[in-house]
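Database export, one record per block. Field names are fixed; values are copied verbatim from the stored entry.
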Amino acid sequence: METTDHTIWIERYRPARLADIVGQDEIVERLQSYVQHGSLPHLLFTGPAGVGKTTAAVALAREFFGESWQMNFRELNASDERGIDVVRNQIKEFARTSPLGGAEFKILFLDEADALTPDAQAALRRTMETYARTCRFILSCNYSSKIIDPIQSRCAIYRFRPLGPDAIRDGILQIATNEGLTVTDGAVEAIAYVAQGDMRRAINALQGAAMVSDQIDESRVYATTATARPDEILELLRLLVAGDFEAAEGALRALLFEHGIAPGELLGQCYRALIRLPMHRDLKVELIDHLGETDFRLSEGGTPELQMEALLARCVLSARRYAC
């Protein structure tokens, strides 16, 4: 009897080997050299979400320890328990015990390490120093500036970059083939646009569209991800630059209330389109400033509808001033 695999695709298609990680060729090559030489320093992986940091850590442990990799590998998420107790108890307890199965050392992977408090990081630094013979630490974070200097100086730092459109396309087409999906070229481009270099987001976008139909086009991708089409964003910006407040307000309301686009997401899309739009440089600077101010006000709890309307008003006033 055939059984259905209900594993979400981002886990089903997570690379198990370093060689399967896409878009990070230089980093993969350096990590593979550690495996070949049988030695490993402490590592710090930094970069945006969904670019392969966790996958690289797990794949590295698999290649060091083989089938018994789980005996000598532990993953902790620092955002779950970010205080000093997690270092004194869980991390120290794992680090101080001897490796199993004849391994030279164990690996502790600490995800979202930038969530640790300064006191917890100070305790972690001491633990990394004390148990360096029996345990290697791999720290992962989005912002290396939030990791204290004594930890950074003890680690080899790897900066993961957002995945390029080609890497996103290759991954999506491979999954589509495995899942028996028909994906148009426009849909692949739409997924790459939605993903912004994040492979997890790309795979989730593909799976969300596939839940509706196995025939996937770009309109379905934008609909299931609640993302505005690039041409709709360009039209909104065109109206703003033309100083047409009423038409721009209508376009904004359609995006917010008919398409259900979140204000924060809409601001991000406007920024991505605006920086590539040809216009007077000083006007572009002002419009970007208006976007940033609105984003800040929303993050501080401002009323979304009011702040988005105020954004339109400020942009239109700036556009009219430069049109004079």
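Remark 1: The CA atoms of residues 178 and 314 lie 49 Å apart.
Remark 2: The chain is about 55% helix and 10% strand.
End of record.
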